[in-house]
Amino acid sequence: MLRGAAHSARDTVTLLLARSQHCNPGLNFLPLRTEGTTRSFLIHSPYTTDVKSGEENKKTIESLYRLSVDIKKIRRLKEWVLLQEVAYVQEIASILQEMGADEPAIASILERCPEAILCSPAEVNSQRALWQLVCQKENQLIKLIEQFPESFFTTGYHENQKANILFFQQLGLKNNIITRFLTSAPNIFYGPVEKNKHVIETLQRNYLSLGGSDANMKTWILKLLSQNPFILLHTSTAIQENLEFLQRSDFTDHEVLQLLSKLKGFIFQLTPATMQKSMHFSKDVFKCSDQELKQLVLKCPALLYYSVPILEERLEGLLKEGISIAQIRETPMVLELTTQIVQYRIKKLSALGYNIKSGNLENLNGTKKDFEVNYGKIQSKKERPMFNPVAPIDIQN
Q1: How many other C-beta atoms are found inside a 10 Å radius of the C-beta of residue 205?
Q2: Burial (CB count <10 Å: 0-12, 13-18, 19+), residue 297
Q3: Which residues partner with 86 through β-bridges?
Q4: What are phi and psi of 87, to 5 degrees?
Q5: Eight-state DSSP code of residue 33
Q6: Torsions phi, psi of 252, nearest 5?
Q7: Which of 206, 211, 275, 194 is nearest to 239 (CA)?
Q8: What GO molecular function annotation could you give as one example from this UniProt entry (predicted)?
Q9: 172 FRET partner, CA 20 to 30 A, in 110, 242, 380, 393?
Q10: DSSP β-ladder status, 47-48 and 86-87
């Protein structure tokens, strides 16, 4: 980590160079076995067997084999599932089939989430009804389960999940957004609904105290949650502390609200200590005043969000490409890009004859789509034939 202001910006970043560098194919099973025209794998009784500790449940293995499940994969990743005395292989397969899953889909689900066979049919049916509160079409629901089986088969928080789903619906979140939360951020449903309500109330209160309007508050909250539902995993106390830190750092209420919107809620994953370290680092590197630093942060919230080691690494990568601190200070948003992305984009631009050392770093910025648009404009300009309107016309007789 860089310390003090005695080092120049380049010396500060390049201190990193002195750091030491720390540097079986699956089984092919036979197709699902059937008897006559019926699917005999749909049996309705749990398997129990007297097994010694550490010994696989043979009936579980046989049932999985009939479903063409890659048992070797389960042994490699979650062998403990195969040691359980009670498993509901056929029952879970039956429920999935009723929902529209075909045999390959069932096998894939059980391979990726073998602990599903330890859930009772009652638990799975309750989970099925729960998810249908926001995803009523079973063909869509089974696709979600195929993609996110672990989220679906976490059945130990049923009452909390239901209460939180109803709360989000009352809050105004659309069902497709809640469905996305269930699959990508399932942890926010596991705690008591009161905890999520408290966090939302804290956000609403602070939004209004920072100058936000009642008319826009609901839209702001819903957008913030849609962008980053993990806000709800933090305590209301932590949220309050981070906002108060920004206010103590001389950001106006309007500027704090601006940062909250730009950071999409990621500010709540930080702490006052980490934000202070990042700001001190940036002030040292760019040799700027407190007011200038504040403007840089408003322009590029990454200076607040990224930790010192990440900022060090990215600055070092830019300096190695011949980019100056003055250029970075003029366009700090370039620090939002990883070193690999910067190197790739510089290489593409250099192939067109664009000199990044003397050029504008704006052409490096933005999303992949933004960069491709800028790159296309530079390429078109380079390839466009020069036309001199006053040049004589060459007429051949």
Answers
A1: 13
A2: buried
A3: 48
A4: -145, 150
A5: P
A6: -70, 165
A7: 206
A8: nucleic acid binding
A9: 242
A10: antiparallel
**CA-based radius of gyration for the chain:** 29
Q: Which pLDDT belongs to residue 142? A: 95
Residue 342 lies in a domain: no
Question: Does residue 359 lie within any of the structural domains?
Answer: no
Q: Is 1 exposed, middle or buried (0-12, 13-18, 19+ CB in 10 A)?
A: exposed
Average pLDDT over every residue of 211-234 = 90
Contacts of 248 (CB under 8 A, 6+ apart): none
* pTM recorded for the entire structure: 0.72
Helices first, then strands: H and E counts in the chain? 21, 2
Query: Rounded to an integer, what distance in angstroms lies between the CA atom of residue 85 and that of residue 46?
Result: 10
Q: Poorest-confidence range of 39-53, 134-148, 222-236, 339-353?
A: 39-53
What span, in angstroms and rounded, lies between the C-alpha atoms of 391 and 388? 5
Q: Which residues of 238-269 are buried (b: 16+ CB within 10 A; e: fewer)?
A: bbeebbebbeebebeeebbbebbebbebbbbb
Mean pLDDT estimate for the chain: 83
Q: What is the pLDDT of residue 390?
A: 54
Any domain includes 360:
no
* Nearest-angstrom CA–CA distance, 209 and 202: 11
Q: How far is CA 236 from CA 130, 205, 268, 287, in A?
A: 27, 11, 10, 35
Within a domain: residue 348? Answer: no
CA distance 260 to 238: 14
Domain that holds residue 124: 56-155
Which position has the token pair 């789509």?
Answer: 369
**Distance in angstroms (rounded) separating the CA atoms of residues 145 and 137:** 13
As for how many domains the chain has, the answer is 1
